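pinned: reference chain
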Amino acid sequence: MSGRWWIVAGSAIAALAVLAGAFGAHGLKAQVADGRITADQLDAFRTAAQYQMLHAIGLVLVGLVARGMAASKTIDAAGIAFLLGTILFSGSIYADVLLSAGLPPLLVPAGGLLFVTGWLLLAIAGWRGSSASG
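pinned: its structure tokens
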């Protein structure tokens, strides 16, 4: 995938993280007050929004690194890991808090493992370099 694609994807996911954070800060507080969700669930929701934003920035970074490199399966794998990690980690928490989804408990840690994998792959791609300009 092109660097441009990763930058656009990361920026869109970052915008959604801002919306999720605002919803958590304003929309969910009332639900804690009336007992529809717990303070722990609100805290988990905030953590999901924070991790979503951090890894959206990671995706933009993947895009910027990709622009300076020849085509690299490693850099694309890092982007895919960040994207899937965000869906599994943050998405599972959002679904659990908002929908009482009762999703399989391993989705969140699997997302976290994908985050770690993405950062390691980004480090490998950066180490290898493979500059597009020579």
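why pinned: The mean pLDDT is 91. The chain is about 80% helix and 0% strand.
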